[in-house]
Design goal:
Length: 519
């Protein structure tokens, strides 16, 4: 896709009970890179992120802190969740909060429609509820607790006790959609990605789909059920609807038609909600199901899913303050195959920063700009007759452009960066072989020097465009130094190799300065 297709991409909306860690930032960055890439290819792109503010988890945290849940949410959104977007340089188009009027009112509209159409009934439910997951658990999903919870059954994800609840609730007749869901997974093999996530969704539905309790009546922090104000909407049912309320569902049909359906980027921990419950809700309402759902892997610390509740959370600023936001973005998207788990370590981050960003890309950029400044007074050289080596660089530029775009289309972000990086390696290899610094010593080789510098200059410009979704800050600096037209983000990424060269280069500060890692 390119040239005006529409791409609406979303992140999960994040619980405001706590501050963000690098796992949350990872999801943001992945969705942002995809959005930036599509935007730069001329697609009608919209990126949404936001916060999930209702439910018992938030209510309890607020109460424990002596404030109302809304006060708590306002504080966390202002002090933690919106600042996260700056910390890792997210260019989102919208930010939705589930306490926004535009959301609450249209959640009610959606629910009323399902109720009127007979998809909702009253029932009783008894089960084990995990407040951390905001989900009823099957007995088979519980494990024996350890330490202070010895002797109790705890949630396998949060390692905290579950609560036995008995409530009279409203139920969504989700079981009625099992066959339709299975047909959907069958007809659209890439509806749920990667393959492992698709298999999980299929197996889950095949084992038998129960109806879903969609209201709670023992607390009131949520959207009121429109026909029975003694109930609030179950927090997940409420939260999933953000994806449509944010783009005009119930109030702006034109905007809704323009944006929906979305490509959802989520962590695999919340796959069932997105790949099973959410499409069933949409089918019930007669709306299009999502374009796709991509469940990425977990960031692991010490072999376990990193999380605040297990005290393994690392704040994104811990990384960006030392390495910068570009390095954060690059590292997590390059080092981890998108869709698989990845272990985070400071050593690996520091090593890749030095080898790939500082020495591989940064140094290449500085050297080429410095040589044009030194040998040609900053005037962009013109290529003369071309050798095979020069032509090969042009070929790599074209290949890197095509291959990285094709990879983005498959949501294979790590491959897209890998394809662009072939150009970094090719240019470094080219300079080593052509030795422009040696050519510069021999006035008889002035023409060849011009051609080599022109070839390297052109390659660098292509790299700046190709890497701009991942490294927005560094590539903008490079683009300015190269004297390219406008901003780097205005350049078409699907034709990166066709960029229009400038007239003069200007000095370039180190793109990735040396860092001292304090362990
Ligand atoms: N509020 C729900 C989502 C509702 S979407 C309609 C929720 N929020 S959350 O704050 O717990 O964030 C969940 C998301 O954060 C995960 O799906 C994942 O994208 C990201 N991550 C949280 N911990 C993570 C890791 N350790 N590793 C990778 N991503 C992680 O669930």
């Amino acid at each position: 896709m390119a040239d005006g297709s529409s791409l609406y991409i979303t992140t999960p909306i994040f619980y405001v009970n706590d501050v963000p860690h690098i796992g949350h930032a990872y999801t943001e960055v992945a969705a942002d890179v995809l959005a930036r890439w599509h935007r730069q290819a001329g697609d009608d792109t919209w990126m949404l992120t936001g916060t999930d503010e209702h439910g018992q988890k938030i209510l309890r945290t607020a109460t424990a802190n002596g404030v109302t849940p809304k006060e708590w949410a306002d504080k966390l959104v202002a002090e933690a969740w919106k600042p996260l977007l700056q910390t890792v340089d997210i260019a989102n188009d919208d930010f939705i909060r589930t306490t926004d009027d535009r959301h609450e009112l249209n959640v009610q509209k959606f629910l009323q429609k399902l109720y009127d159409d007979g998809h909702i009934y009253t029932g009783e439910y008894e089960g084990y509820y995990c407040v951390g997951c905001e989900e009823y658990k099957q007995q088979s999903e519980l494990v024996p607790g350890a330490g202070e919870y010895e002797g109790q059954l705890v949630c396998a994800i949060h390692s905290k006790p579950v609560e036995l609840l008995h409530e009279k609730n409203y139920f969504f007749r989700m079981s009625a959609f099992a066959d339709k869901l299975l047909a959907l997974y069958e007809e659209r093999p890439d509806f749920v990605q990667p393959e492992s996530a698709r298999n999980e969704a299929v197996a889950f539905v095949k084992q038998g789909l129960a109806d879903l309790s969609i209201s709670r009546s023992t607390f009131d922090w949520g959207v009121k059920v429109p026909w029975d104000e003694s109930h609030v909407v179950y927090v997940w049912f409420d939260a999933l609807l953000n994806y449509i309320t944010a783009v005009g569902y119930g109030q702006d049909d034109e905007e809704f038609a323009r944006r929906w359906p979305a490509q959802h980027v989520i962590g695999k921990d919340i796959l069932r909600f997105h790949a099973v419950i959410w499409p069933a809700m949409l089918l019930a309402a007669g709306l299009d199901v999502p374009k796709g759902i991509f469940g990425h892997g977990w960031l692991l610390v010490g072999g376990e899913k990193m999380s605040k509740s297990k005290l393994t959370g690392i704040a994104p600023e811990q990384i960006t303050e030392t390495f910068g936001s570009d390095a954060f973005r690059y590292y997590f998207l390059r080092a981890i195959a998108f869709g698989q788990d990845g272990s985070f370590s400071w050593e690996d981050l520091a090593a890749r920063y030095q080898a790939e960003l500082a020495n591989g890309f940064g140094n290449l950029a500085s050297r080429v700009v410095a040589m044009i400044t030194r040998y040609r007074d900053g005037v962009v050289p013109a290529a003369g007759s071309l050798t095979e080596a020069d032509l090969e660089i042009a070929a790599v530029e074209r290949r890197a452009t095509d291959a990285s775009w094709a990879a983005v289309d498959r949501l294979a972000i790590h491959e897209a960066i890998g394809s662009a990086w072939e150009l970094v390696d090719a240019l470094n290899g080219y300079l080593t072989i052509e030795e422009p610094w040696t050519l510069a010593k021999d006035p008889a080789k002035a023409d060849r020097l011009e051609t080599v510098l022109a070839t390297a200059y052109h390659g660098l410009g292509t790299l700046a465009v190709l890497l701009s979704p991942v490294l927005p800050k560094a590539t903008e600096k490079l683009w300015t130094a190269l004297g390219g037209p406008g901003t780097v983000q205005e350049q078409r990424i699907d034709r990166a190799h066709e960029w229009t060269i400038g007239e003069r280069v200007t000095p370039l500060e180190a793109l990735f300065p040396r860092v001292e890692v304090v362990e």
